[in-house]
Amino acid sequence: MYAVGKVLKPRGLKGEVKVEIITSFPAHFESLHTVYFQNNKGWHPLTVSKVSFKKNAVYLIFKEVASLEEAEKLRGSYLYIPKDDLIELEEDEFYVHDLIGMRVVDEAGHDLGEIVNVESYAGNDVYVIENLHGRQQLIPAIKDVVLKVDRRLKRMTIHVIDGLLD
After folding, report:
1. 3: Cβ–Cβ under 8 A, 6 or more apart, which residues?
2. How far apart are CA 62 and CA 51, in angstroms?
3. Structurally, how many domains does the chain consist of?
4. Is 31 in the same domain as 77?
């Protein structure tokens, strides 16, 4: 299961919820029929009956949620979709879960560390790698730096430009 959103709060009296989009592909919400949330009793499906976008949020109505009180119970819950519902990506696109844990090497094959996080900025994403000494370094996700990403081997090859690892 992969998280695509987090329920922020109810909206209105009929069970609509405001959801923070935590996927790089908001289009996921346009085609979703079912999302899942988890509580201490396990996984629960929610059938999406209406989707609308406003600014950086998506508003959802579920068939199973018909009141403000029921919607309030979802506050703070993450909404998940199964792997089969993920959007097929282009060859040079990646999900964050594909990148976390990936080894990063330079052009000579020297191990530089492991990707521990991906941060999004207006210009480009940045990969946070933790080197062999436990120090974190930032690698810009740009074509001049990232030369190759091998999902199968879970390895990224980068070109180390001057000052990148200082």
Report:
1. 22, 23, 78, 79, 80
2. 9
3. 2
4. yes
